Amino acid sequence: MRAPRRIALARLPTPLQPLDRLSEELGGPRIWVKRDDLSESGAGGNKVRKLEFVIAEAIHRGADTLLTCGGLQSNHCRATALLGAKLGLAVELVLRGHSGASPEGNHFLDLLAGASVHIYSARRYQAELPALLDTHAQALRRRGARPFTIPTGASDGLGVWGYLEASEELAADFRAVGIRPRHLVVATGSGGTQAGLTAGLHLHVPSCEVHGIAVCDDAAWFQRKVRADLADWQSRFGSSLDLDALRIDTLDAYIGPCYGHADADTLATIRRVARTEGLLLDPVYTGKAFHGLLQELAAGRMCDADDIVFVHTGGIFGMFPQRLEILGVAN
Hints:
Helices cover 44% and strands 16% of the residues. The protein is an alpha/beta fold.
């Protein structure tokens, strides 16, 4: 299989750590966390692994500007802004939401890194995203720039490589600490991380099943998206993997009120994990996924092994715009 270009942007391997106090408190399998929130300081999280491949391709094609999109508190957009600054590339962001009086969290970091930010209402963004990206790309070309458009979350057949490679790293982690987990849990939003892990663990740790905890959309949407990303990967790079043999499992019962906001039980889980393990989870991605993991364990599911793995995909900066809600003191 032909491998793509790659540029080293993440600090790898990231640690695999046990959550012993919480595991003892729960009385079930020992929970381990893959600390991909530590993949890079400011740009940390799962997006950096994908962007190693995507930005390498952009540079190869002669791009001087990265154009991408997401929510106002997008971890992917923040990572793209910071990595673009590191590499001397301009960054243009098409964001969904409303700016408010003062930029916070990831939005603040987008601006701090020098990204050009264009904010659209949720309705217009959802209805016109391809056209909006095309409009901004054309405007950049008229100014003499050479843009490279990155899809939401860097989730496509190229971005899949980030977690294909991470799966080999996880296999080495498991050997090093002497565990044989049967379940791995990860937050899933744009589908690319789940796609890479699903194919990668099938290749490197076939006894370990991937469970995506949806933070938006339903299980049927993720079935389509994960398979589409893997089909794109296969067509680009010539893998002989039987995609029909892959089990794509997404749990969509823990989304809460909507994308970007968590329910009271999830916020309680965020507080519990911080106060038991000193581990920070955000209300957009990892908090929902970890809460889903705890609920599944409480229901007696995923308890058929001594060890279970949670992939921490980052998102710490997304905590701050919702700090009062997380603390339980919001008006």
